[in-house]
């Protein structure tokens, strides 16, 4: 299995055709989608178009499949994209998981891995994540679990509001040496 990011019990990997039914079901789930992406469920044809347009995880950008490491079964999707929410050229990460996998710490593990990739491996100065203001679970992960900083609420188009969080490379704390 080609792995983009290993997060202990789940991996982020390129989309495979066997993932289509699970990803389409997530994209069509009204409860999940009212707080994600365009805040509406996608009908099957629109879900297929979304997969075709966005699931091209390459060296940095695009979406990939979040899969259980033990079986390779798809449970969601995640990835990076360019982002101008804070009036600068930034990179944004995000995730959407099937409801059965909510509340298991998977989003936190993904977030930590994605932040490490962007700030560490790729040397970005900061990385962003945005969520629907009503998505309390995602906001909790961003604010409390990943310790990201709330920047501001944006409205990229009328009625479409997002709360934007950032994290930047933290300077290494000076190491204290005990006196000899």
- Using DSSP, what is the number of strands? 8
Secondary structure category: alpha+beta
CATH topology group: Aminopeptidase
CATH class: Alpha Beta
What is the architecture at the second tier of CATH? Answer: 3-Layer(aba) Sandwich
Distance between the termini: 50 Å
Helix content: 25-40%
The shape, in one word, is globular
Largest sheet: 5 strands, antiparallel
| Rg over alpha carbons | 17 Å
CATH superfamily: Gcn5-related N-acetyltransferase (GNAT)
Percentage of β-strand residues: 25-35%
Low-confidence stretches are 171-180
Total helices: the number is 5
Q: What strand order characterises the main sheet? A: 1-2-3-4-5
Quick check: average pLDDT?
A: 90
Q: What is the domain tally?
A: 1
The SSE order reads EEHHHEEEHEHEE
Describe it for me?
The chain is of the alpha+beta class and 180 residues long. 27% of the residues lie in helices and 31% in strands. The model is unreliable at 171-180 (pLDDT under 50). The relative contact order is 0.15. The chain has one domain (5-168): Aminopeptidase (3-Layer(aba) Sandwich). It has a 5-stranded antiparallel sheet with strand order 1-2-3-4-5, with helices on both faces. The chain has helices at 20-27, 30-33, 44-54, 106-121, 136-145, and strands at residues 5-7, 10-13, 62-68, 74-83, 90-97, 126-131, 149-157, 160-168.
């Amino acid at each position: 299995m080609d792995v983009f990011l290993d997060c202990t019990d789940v991996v982020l990997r390129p989309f495979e055709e066997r993932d289509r039914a699970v990803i389409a079901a997530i994209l069509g789930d009204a409860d999940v989608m009212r707080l994600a992406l365009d805040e509406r469920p996608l009908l099957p044809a629109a879900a297929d178009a979304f997969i075709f347009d966005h699931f091209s995880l390459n060296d940095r950008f695009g979406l990939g499949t979040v899969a259980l490491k033990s079986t390779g079964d798809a449970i969601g999707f995640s990835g990076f994209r360019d982002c101008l929410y804070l009036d600068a050229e930034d990179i944004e990460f995000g995730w959407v998981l099937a409801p059965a996998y909510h509340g298991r710490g998977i989003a936190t593990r993904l977030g930590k891995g994605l932040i490490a990739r962007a700030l560490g491996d790729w040397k970005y100065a900061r990385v962003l994540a945005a969520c629907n203001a009503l998505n309390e679970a995602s906001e909790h992960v961003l604010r409390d679990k990943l310790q990201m900083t709330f920047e501001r609420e944006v409205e990229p188009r009328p009625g479409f509001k997002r709360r934007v969080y950032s994290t930047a490379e933290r300077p290494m704390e000076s190491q204290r040496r005990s006196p000899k």
